[in-house]
Amino acid sequence: MGGGEKKFSRIGREQILNAYRAGPEAVISLFEYLQETLLTIIEEHEARIEELEAKLNRDSHNSNKPPSTDEPKRRFSPKNRERSEKKPGGQEGHEGTTLRMVSDPAHVEVHEVRRCQRCGRSLKDAKPRGYVPRQVFDIPRIAVEVTEHRAQIKRCPHCGEFSRGDFPEGVTHKTQYGTRVRAFSAYLKNYGFLSYQRVAEALYDLFTVPVSAGTLAANDRRCARRLEKVVEEIRERLVHAPVVHFDETGLSINGKLHWLHGAGNHAFTYYFPHERRGGAASDAIGILPRLKGNAVHDNWQPYMKYRCQHSLCNAHHIRELTGVYELGGQPWAQQMIGLLLEGKQTVEHAKKAGKKRLGPSVLHEYINRYETIIAAGMKANPPPTRRQDCPRRGRLKRSKACNLLDRLAERRKETLRYLSDFRVPFDNNQAEREIRMMRVQQKVSGTFRSDAGALAFCRIRSYISTMRKHGKSVIDALMRAFQQSDLTLKVCLQAS
Q: What is the rounded CA–CA span in Å between residue 263 and residue 250?
C-alpha cells in the first residue's frame, strides 16, 4: 500500500484488559480507534480496487492505448463512430475494379467444337456461326534483359592518340543492375517493408535476379543520397503550409531506443529519426520552430513551446472522455463527446454548403455549451485535499478525469479551433496513419542496425509517401531517383 495509508497494528490481550480495568470510557475510546482505523483501511482498499478495475477495463476505445494491446475478444469499432447512411458495398457511380474485356487481346485461342452435343455426329466440316469469348488476364513470364554498352575506341590518324566514347550516365561498372531492378528493390524494402533477405529472395523468385543483402543496403543508401535535396524541399513546403500534423513513435536503432518523428499534411510527408523525443528533436528537424500555420498534434507538451497556432486531436479527447464516462460514470463526459461530434458535423455541413466559417452566434453558442459542460465536470471532480494524518509532501495525485478537465479548460481554443478555422481538421488521424506504417515496418522488417540505415529509410519513405499523395507511380518515382542525380521536387511533381 502507499506510504500515506494507515496500517492496522495488532492490539494485544494486555491492552484490552487495561482498557477494561480503566472503565467504560477507555473501552469506548479503544473501539472508536479501531472503527476509525478499519474504516480508513477499507476505504483505501476500495479506492485501490476501483483504480485497478478501471485500469483493467481500459482499451483503445476508452483510452490512448494502441489497438494492438486490446484483447481479441474486446476489439470492436468505436461506439461514437458516426453511422453512415450509405449501404454496404460499392456506391452508385463508383467505377470499381472489375476486369473488362479488351478489343485487341495479345493472344487468341480457338477451341473447336468437334461433335454435336445432341446427336454426337461430327461437326468437322461445319462452318462456325459465332464464338463465345472469355478472356484471361495474366502476367507473362518475366525475363531479365541484359543491355551491353560498348564504348567505341578510335585512333587519331594525325597524332596517334586513342580516344574512347562516353558511357551513359550511371553506367560505371563492368556489370551492374539497371534502374528498374534498383527501383523494385527499394520499393519492396521501403514500401513493402520486407527485410533485405526477403527482398533478395523475392527478386530471385520473380525475376531470377541474384542479389545480396549488402548490395540492397548499398542501393538504399544511394537512393537516399539522390533524394536528399528533394526531401529538404518537402520539409520547406511543410514549413510554409497552413496546417501540418505531427506525431512520433519509438524506433530501435542498434538496440537503443530512438524516436521517429513524422510531419505531414494532405500533400507532403516528412520523417526524421532522432535519439530524443522532445524539443531537441523538433529543433533539429526545423519545422515547428519556423511554422507559421497550425500544428495539429496530441498535446505532447514539448510542442506547445513553439509560437505557431496549435490544434489538439479530438479523437484522443473522445477516447479519454469515453473512459471517464464508462469507467467513472460521469455524465458530463458523454455530453462533451456529443458536443464535439455535433460541432464536427456542423462544420462538414457548412463546408458542403460552400461556407468558409460558422456564424458568430453559432460559434458563440458552442463555446458557451463547452464552458457549461466543463463547469459541470469541475463540480463533479473537486480538487483533491490532503488528509491531516497524511505526512507526505509534494503534489497530490489527481484523477484522470481531473487532468482531462484541466486540459480541456486550459486548451479550449486549441480544442475547438476546428470550429473557427475550417482548414484545421477535427483530429490528428493524418499523422497517426503515417506513423502507424512505421510501426508496421518494425514488426515486419525488424529494427535498424545503424543511424545511416534509419535515415536512408526515412528519406525514401518521405519521398514515396509524398509521391503517392500526388497520384504518382511509386516505381516510376523511384526509377527517376536513380536516373537523375540532380532531381528536384518540382521535376517529380510535374512528371507524368
A: 15
pLDDT, tens digit (0-9, with 9 covering 90-100), for 158-213: 999 999 999 998 888 999 999 999 999 999 999 999 999 999 999 999 998 999 99
Amino acid in position 354: G
E-assigned strand segments in 95-187:
153-155, 162-164
Taking the CA atoms of residue 185, residue 187, residue 189 and residue 193 in that order, the dihedral angle to the nearest 10 degrees is -150
Q: Are 294 and 424 in contact (CB under 8 A)?
A: yes
Give Cβ neighbours of residue 287 (< 8 Å, ≥ 6 apart). Answer: 235, 238, 239, 244, 263, 270
CA 103 to chain centre: 43
Quickly tell me which residue has 488528509 as its cell.
387
Three-class secondary structure of residue 139 per DSSP? coil
Best CA proximity match to 102, nearest among 139, 140, 137, 141? 137
| pTM to 2 decimal places | 0.78
User: Please, how many CA atoms are within 13 Å of residue 470, restricted to the half-sphere of its CB?
Assistant: 21
Q: Which of these, 140, 62, 67, 144, lies nearest to 337 by C-alpha position?
A: 62
What are the extents of the domains in the chain? Answer: 1-45, 213-288+450-494, 314-383+397-420
pLDDT in tens, 78-104: 554 556 666 666 677 666 677 899 999
Q: How confident is the model at residue 90, as a pLDDT?
A: 64
From CA 220, how far away is CA 454, in angstroms rounded?
Answer: 10
